[in-house]
Amino acid sequence: MTGKADYMKLLILALAVAGISMFHYFTPLHASYLHDIFQRLYYIPIILSALWFGLRGGLLCSVIVSIVYAPHILYQWGGDFSMETEKYLEILLFNIVGGLTGFLSQLEKERTAELKKTAEGLETSYRKLKAQSERIMAIEEQLRRAEKLSTMVELAAVLAHEVRNPLASIRGTAEILRDDYPADNPKHEFIDIQIRETERLNRVVSEFLQMVRPRPSDMQLCNVMEELETIAALLTNDARNHHVEIVLEPSGKTVSIIADNEKLRQAFLNIILNALQAAPAGSSVSIAADASDSGWLKISFHDNGPGIDPGNADRLFVPFFTTKQEGTGLGLSITKKIIESHNGTIAIESLKGNGTTVIIRLPV
Ligand code: ADP
Ligand code: MG
């Protein structure tokens, strides 16, 4: 590529060669000491050209100088070889100097370019290394945090276990005490409360244990409709107590997915329990599976309950969030964890007063 600077250099060289040649041709021959000086002045453009444009530049300039200088020897000095040997030798020397300087300067330029390339390579490797080490540091930090968390989870699990044993004794002794008071005695009522609250605590602890100590998952082919039927059958009694019917809508085809069926059942159970608790007596809870969306299985659970207050919508999956007197607030957070561990999604659609639909999507 020839830039503006290069044209400037070419112009300087051309002017120098032309200027020196003019001196040669217009200076009378008897001023031979001046000619000796002019002759050597040619080296300046030759060396400059060699430095600027390498081997080709040096040679080209020396050849041009030779061509412009030759007629001066041949016609003005007579061109006698034995008389003007020194001038012919000078021409030879022009070319040697042009070629050699050009060669050396080109070598130098190539080396500089190579060094620059190496430096750039080093720079990119350095940047890559730096980015990599930053990533490693971030991962290490994450691991350390995860480790801290897992010891905390372990501690929590131990604590939960420790709480359960005394709870069992409190409940047992309360039941014995209750027998001492007839049902119309106000203390009977207090002991009832005591038993109910210990039951609730026990439930919190059990569900909490389930959450913090997940079993290693056991993935296998499982028929989702069958699992839903199992849960529906398991909950017949609860449904009857609430005077609610569980309706499992038939799905056209059998849908099987790779999943941990025990965990899936747990998730379905939590959702259906919530629906049963919300549904008014005499209504029904409907469950439908739909595999028409390619790649996804959609399961919806609908109840005609009071719906969810919009203000609570983003707290539903937060552990311990509950609006129920006897609730633990762990059901949905466990369910979400299970569904997400199956790469699925869970969404809750609800209009206050218009019932609630929980929609699970699982990859097929
Ligand atoms: P819990 O059932 O112990 O309260 P969950 O995590 O299962 O805990 O549910 C959290 C809260 O979400 C419930 O207390 C309730 O306010 C709301 N919720 C869940 N499912 C329904 C539903 N089908 N209808 C109305 N509210 C619901
Ligand atoms: Mg619940």
Overall description:
β6 and β7 form a beta hairpin. α4 (85-179) runs antiparallel to α5. With 364 residues, the chain is α+β, with helices and mostly antiparallel strands. The longest helix has 95 residues, at 85-179. It has nine helices and seven strands, in the order αααααβααββαββαββ. The protein folds into two domains: 1-213, no CATH class; 220-363, Histidine kinase-like ATPase, C-terminal domain (Heat Shock Protein 90, 2-Layer Sandwich), CATH 3.30.565. Strands 2-4-5-7-6 form a five-stranded mixed β-sheet, covered by helices on one side. The two termini are 60 Å apart. It has helices at 4-26, 32-41, 43-76, 85-179, 186-212, 224-234, 236-242, 261-278, 331-341; strands spanning 220-223, 245-248, 256-259, 284-290, 296-303, 345-350, 356-363. The structure holds adenosine-5'-diphosphate (ADP) and magnesium ion (MG). Residues 270, 273-274, 331 line the site of magnesium ion (MG).
Question: How helix-rich are the residues, as a percent range?
Answer: 55-70%
**Based on DSSP secondary structure assignment, what is the total number of beta strands?**
7
Structural class determined from secondary elements: alpha+beta
Quaternary organisation: single chain
Radius of gyration: 48 Å
Q: Report the total helices.
A: 9
Low-confidence stretches: none
Compute the separation of the termini in Å: 60 Å
Strand % is 5-15%
Hetero groups in this structure are: adenosine-5'-diphosphate, magnesium ion
Structurally, how many domains make up the residues? 2
> What order do the helices and strands follow?
HHHHHEHHEEHEEHEE
